[in-house]
Amino acid sequence: MSYLIETILSGLLAGVMYSLVALGFVLIFKASQIFNFAQGVLCLFAALTLASLMLGNTPFSELLHTLGLPNDWMPVVPIWIAVPITILVMIGLAFVIERFVLRYLVNQEPIILFMATIGLAYVLEGMGDLMWGSDVKPLSVGLPEGALDWMFDRFDIYVDKLEIAAAVVATVLVIALSLFSQYTRIGRALRAVADDHQAALSVGISLRTIWIIVWSIAGFVALVAGTMWGAKSGVQFSLSLIALKALPVLILGGFTSIPGAILGGLIIGVGEKLAELYAGPYIGGAIENWFAYVLALAFLLVRPQGLFGERIIERV
Amino acid sequence: MLYRETGDFKVSYRDDQQTFPIIQDRWLFWGMLAVAFLVIPFIIDDYWEKSIVLPFLVFSLAAIGLNILTGYCGLLSLGTGGFMAVGAYASYKLMTAFPELNIVIVILLSGGVTAAVGMFFGLPSLRIKGFYLAVATLAAQFFLVWLFNKVPWFYNYSATGQITAPERSIFGFAVTGPEATPAATYLFCLAFVTVLALVAKNLIRGRIGRSWMSIRDMDIAAEIIGVPPMRTKLSAFAVSSFYIGIAGALYFTVWFGAAEPTEAFGINQSFLVLFMVIIGGLGSMLGSFLGAAFMVLLPIVLKNIMVGGFDVLPVLAKHVEITLVGSLIIFFLIVEPHGLARLWSIAKEKMRLWPFPH
Questions:
Q1: What's the start-to-end Cα distance of chain B, in Å?
Q2: Which of A118, A301, A314 has its CB closest to that of B124?
Q3: How far apart are CA B267 and CA B286, in angstroms?
Q4: B20 part of contact set with chain A, CB < 8 Å
Q5: Which residues contact B264 (CB under 8 A, 6 or more apart)?
Q6: pLDDT digits over B100-150, tens only?
Q7: What is the rounded distance in angstroms from the CA atom of residue A45 to the CA atom of residue A239?
Q8: Is residue A200 part of a domain?
Q9: What is the ipTM, given to two decimal places?
Q10: Among A90, A152, A185, B147, whose Cα sits 20 to 30 Å from the Cα of B267?
Q11: What is the DSSP string of B2-14?
């Protein structure tokens, strides 16, 4: 029994991590109808920047070395400076993306925008490697680690403190985001754009500014998600693949719903762990890669717009 | 002056409805076929075969397949790599189970197997569309790769989990295995590509192709005027998977000769083919070829320039290459979202008016 509870708990906590990534997708999709495949690489890039700053790596060190320039002048940056710097980098990135990519692709078909974000994912991946090197970097931001002792002692259940911390951070993040979108001027503008682009434009909301803001927020969410995943397993290239983990969460929850992303993440997390536990041994194990997709797919057949997605109304 | 339909009178319906209605297009087509079949086989060498020509031919087929599904029927799929794996493993199982079977039949049959698998994974398309469908096809991608990794029957219980193509020959010339000459493998693939491309071109012009396009343009309206959505969508999945399966079979048997599912048929393969289709031009046969050529040549050219021209370290060059490929893709999407095929048709339009542009 305690093993089952442990499995469900760890599934829920893993689900929170998926939700964190899915959140970034939903924000951008709501504001600009862009299916942002680069979100996973954005997480990687943010975590890579933070980890490298804290390790004192020099950006482009290999390139500088090739050109014969000095390449070890970066000091080790303490965390309370490194985090703001990383946030600034992500905001700068949002500017660059808007300025050089999105601005020219307004009103293109969704598939073109989707392909552009895959191109963007390649660019970010290459840039991340170029700037910081492709070795695995440890990232410790002072989050607690190891087993939660009193749970282990009293109920004999193993729960990782890091995952509890991730759940707390995710909750705080979601509350902060919803407060931001409910009670601030920018938040209201964001909701207006998500509701109706043209109406928002006609009352004087600048789409470009909104896009920069949304991509900055998505970058910030990516930083949080990347930090959590990075603290768990080190910052490395495979981090960018968590985007693929977030996709079934998205279709389960609906592309346009933040509660959907959270609940979808939890369902996928628990479903995945339970399937691995009960069905895994019979069909050969390692089913994590595709089970989430099949689960989401089965769900979609019943509700094509996802759990909380907007109802699709079609007219001729 | 040189390129226009003026003076090229059509006196029968047959003339009017031929595949290439403009005479210069026909010359160009036959000329290219002649060069491809009669000149290139004599000058091709090992490097050109393995790194440029075979990749181009194989990926053209895959791109045609995906273009049928995405460009003509409007169903976005990210499962191309998985379907290529089905073709490859089907051909492997057929070759090892029936050693006397002709290789041409093996490859056609593996296309058929892939078509059946594709139809099965196409079933969700009856209910969902757009990006929801794209993510749903990812289920096929991951499930199929997992299946070929996990079930030993597919790789005949070999210790490494790899599959290796046994030697097969046609008219006495080896086309698979280490003995195959570049000219033989090239002609073998080229024959497949030529025949299948012509078939596809004519499928698209006909009733089936038109029903695909009507579903793409507006599925509800198409249903109302009597296009059966189920049959149309599933036939698009079947035909598309048939092409992709044959591409996968050629990829494994002729081009590489050995394969391992995770690397050879991963999700990057799906994205690569999708890029070919988009950069070449959605809903264009010519675009499939142009896109395949572009995506095959781009990394080679970049690498040669960087490693050969600027003497950059190979590791560094790899990173720069990814960045550049990504930026060039974005650049192309911005400059011409309708792909290289559109550029070609603009060029043709200009040629038609030349030298009197007004």
A1: 14
A2: A301
A3: 25
A4: no
A5: B85, B88, B251, B252, B256
A6: 888 899 999 999 999 999 999 988 888 887 888 888 888 889 889 888 888
A7: 9
A8: yes
A9: 0.84
A10: A90
A11: -S--TT----SHH
Of B132, B145, B320, the CB nearest to A126: B320
Determine, for residues A244 and B138 on separate chains, whether the beta-carbon distance falls below 8 Å.
Answer: yes
Q: Which of B150, B320, B333 sits opposite A130 (nearest CB)?
A: B320
**Looking at chain B from residue 71 to 100, which residues have their Cβ under 8 Å from any Cβ of chain A?**
76
The dihedral of CA B259, B264, B270, B274: what is its sign? negative
Q: Looking at the domain assignment, is residue A20 inside a domain?
A: yes
Interchain CB distance below 8 Å, A122 and B329: yes
Residue of A nearest to B277 (CA): A115
- The answer as to whether A56 is a domain residue is yes
Q: How many domains does chain A have?
A: 1
Range of the domain at A187: 2-241
Q: Which of B132, B217, B294, B313 to mutate to test the interface with A (most CBs of A within 10 A)?
A: B132
Positive or negative, the Cα torsion across A146, A148, A151, A153?
positive
User: Can you say how many angstroms the Cα of residue B94 is from the centroid of all Cα atoms in its chain?
Assistant: 22
d(CA A268, CA B193): 42
Q: Where are the domains of chain B?
A: 39-266
Q: What is the pLDDT of residues A252-276, one digit of tens each?
A: 888 888 888 888 888 888 888 888 7
